[in-house]
Write a structure and sequence with these properties.
75% of the residues lie in helices and 0% in strands. It has ten helices and no strands. The longest helix is centred in the last third of the chain and has 28 residues.
C-alpha cells in the first residue's frame, strides 16, 4: 500500500490518510466481506489506530459509500467520454465497452467491492449510487437505441441489451486477476467485439 497507488486510485481525495483508509477498506472488504470487516481491521491495514478512521469517515458505512460512489463516478466518466468523443453508435459502443471492461479488470479488487457490496449501503447512500448506475445504463441504452434506429444493431429491447452489455463488463471483476492471460486492454478489446456481435452488428 503506497502513497502513489492510493493517489492514482483517488486523485481528488484529500488528505493522503483518507486515501490510505479507502485503500485499506477496499482490501479488507474484498478479503473478508463488508459485514465481517471491523473498523479495527481497516485501521490496522492502513497502519493507523482505530480512532484515526473516524477523523475522516464517521462510520464503516461512510467509508464503503466513498469507495462505491468514487468507483461508479469513474465508470460513468468512461461512458460519458465515449459518448462525447464518438457519434457513430457502433464505434461508440466499441470504445465504451473496451474502456468499461478494461477498468473492471485493471481495478478488479475495487470493482468487486463497488459492484457486489451495494446491499451493505444505507438507504440514502444506496440511492445516490443507484442514480449513478441509472445514468450509466441510460447512456448505454441511448447509444444502442440510436444504433437500432439506423439498422446498425438488431435488438428486440435496448433496455435489456444495455443491461446485458453492462453485466458482461461488471462480471469481469469477479474472475479477473493479475494471473489472467490477457491484459485489461486486450480483454476490453475482445469484449467490445463480442458485444458488437451480440447486438447484431453487420460485418
Amino acid at each position: 500500500m503506497t502513497m502513489s497507488l492510493s493517489a492514482d486510485l483517488w486523485p481528488d481525495v484529500q488528505p493522503e490518510t483518507a486515501r490510505r483508509l479507502m485503500l485499506a477498506g477496499v482490501e479488507s472488504f474484498a478479503r473478508r466481506g463488508y459485514h465481517a470487516t471491523t473498523t479495527r481491521d481497516i485501521a490496522s491495514a492502513a497502519g493507523m489506530s482505530p480512532a484515526a478512521l473516524y477523523v475522516h469517515f464517521p462510520s464503516k458505512a461512510a467509508l464503503l459509500f466513498a469507495i462505491s460512489r468514487s468507483g461508479h463516478e469513474q465508470t460513468l466518466g468512461l461512458v460519458q467520454n465515449a459518448v462525447a468523443k464518438v457519434q457513430d453508435p457502433v464505434e461508440c459502443i466499441r470504445l465504451m465497452v473496451a474502456d468499461f471492461v478494461a477498468w473492471h479488470a485493471r481495478r478488479h479488487t475495487i470493482a468487486r467491492v463497488v459492484q457486489y457490496e451495494l446491499n451493505a449501503l444505507p438507504e440514502r447512500e444506496l440511492e445516490v449510487v443507484t442514480e449513478l448506475r441509472r445514468e450509466i445504463e441510460r447512456l448505454v441504452r441511448e447509444v444502442i437505441t440510436q444504433g437500432s434506429a439506423t439498422g446498425a444493431f438488431t435488438v428486440a429491447d435496448p433496455r435489456t441489451a444495455a443491461r446485458a452489455v453492462l453485466s458482461l463488463g461488471v462480471d469481469v471483476a469477479r474472475w479477473y486477476s493479475e494471473r489472467s492471460r490477457q491484459t485489461p486492454e486486450a480483454l476490453g478489446k475482445e469484449y467490445s467485439e463480442l458485444v458488437l456481435r451480440m447486438l447484431g452488428t453487420r460485418p
